[in-house]
Amino acid sequence: MRTPFIAGNWKMHKTRAEARDLAAALKEQLSGVSHRLLVAPTFTSIETVATVLEGSNILVGAQNMAAARSGAHTGEISPDMLKDVGAQVVILGHSERRHVYGETDELINTKVQLALEEGLEVILCIGETLDEREAGQVDQVNRRQLTGGLAGVDAGAMGRITIAYEPVWAIGTGKTATPEDADTTHAAVRSIMADLYDQSVADAVVIQYGGSVKLDNVAGLMAKPNIDGALVGGASLKADTFVPIAQFDS
Ligand code: 13P
To answer: pLDDT by residue (tens digit) across 194-224?
Structure first.
C-alpha cells in the first residue's frame, strides 16, 4: 500500500562534476528498482543532477528552501528557483537546520506551506535529541514538531508530504535505533497523524527512518510494518554504498 521511499541527502558534499558522476552511476545502476527514489544534492548541483536524471526513476530534491517567494533575503533560495533548476521535492526541518541554524517549528511550517502552494513535494524531518530521549520525551517532541510543522496543512495535501523520523543522536554517529525501537516510534508518529488528521491519512503517510542507515541495517528496518523508507546521509555519497541500500530486499 505504501511504496518504499529511499532518499539520499548529500548534505554539503560534492562539486558539480562529482555530483554528475554519482547521478550518472545511480541512474544506470538503479534503473530497474521499483522503490521510490530521490537524491538531494546541494543547491549548486541540483540543475546538473536533474539534467542527468531526466527521464529516470530517481527524483531530485533540495535540502532546504526560503520561507518567502522573493525579496530581500540575502543568501536564500526560493521555491521558484528550485523548480527552475529541476527540483521536485524539498527536505524541510532537517535536524541540522533546526539545531545548527536555529530553525523553529514556526519557520519550518511557513516553508512547508509555501512549498506545497508552489507545487513541491515535502519531506518533513522530525526527531529528538539525546537529552530529550533520555528524558523520555520522544513522542512529545515528535508531536510538537508534527503539530507545529504541519499547522494549516489540510488532509488533501498530505499525499505530497513524507515524514522522516531522524533521531538526532543517530545522525552521522554510526548509532542506529534498533528496528524495534524505530518501529515503535514510527507507530507513535502514525498515531499522532491520526490525531492531527484521521486514520486514513495516518495509514497512507510514508514515514522514512534516518540516522546511520547502511546496507547492513536497511533490510531489518524496512521489514518493520511502520517503516516505509530511509533518508540516508553518509551512505548516499557513493554509488557502491547507496545502490544496495536503494535495492534493499524486503
Ligand atoms: P547519516 O545517514 O549520515 O547518519 O545522516 C542521516 C541524515 O541526516 C539524513 O538526512
So the answer is: 999 999 999 999 999 999 999 999 999 999 9
140-161 core/surface letters (b: 16 or more CB in 10 A; e: else): ebbbebbebbbeebeeeebeeb
From the candidates 94, 96, 103, 186, give the one annotated as an active-site residue. Answer: 94
Nearest to 115 by CA among 58, 74, 67, 49: 67
> In this structure, what is the dihedral angle of CA atoms 145, 148, 153, 154, given to the nearest 10 degrees?
80
What structural domains and CATH numbers belong to the chain? 35-69+76-233 (3.20.20.70)
Residue written as cell 533518508? 231
Active site residue 134: no
Distance, C-alpha 214 to centroid of its chain = 16
Strand, coil or helix: what is 229? strand
Judged against a pLDDT cut of 80, whether residue 250 lies above it is answered with: no
Query: Is residue 127 in contact with ligand 1, taking CB distance under 6 Å?
Result: no
Residue 12 CA to ligand 1 center (angstroms) comes to: 12
Compute the distance from residue 229 Cα to the ligand 1 centre, in Å.
13
Query: Residue 7's closest CA among 104, 87, 110?
Result: 87
For residue 89, report the phi and psi dihedrals to the nearest 5 degrees.
-135, 150
pLDDT at residue 177, as a whole number: 86
Q: Which of 76, 166, 180, 186 is catalytic?
A: 166
Its pTM stands at: 0.98
Strand ranges inside 48-117, DSSP E: 58-62, 89-92
Q: Is 211 in the pocket of ligand 1 (CB under 6 A)?
A: yes
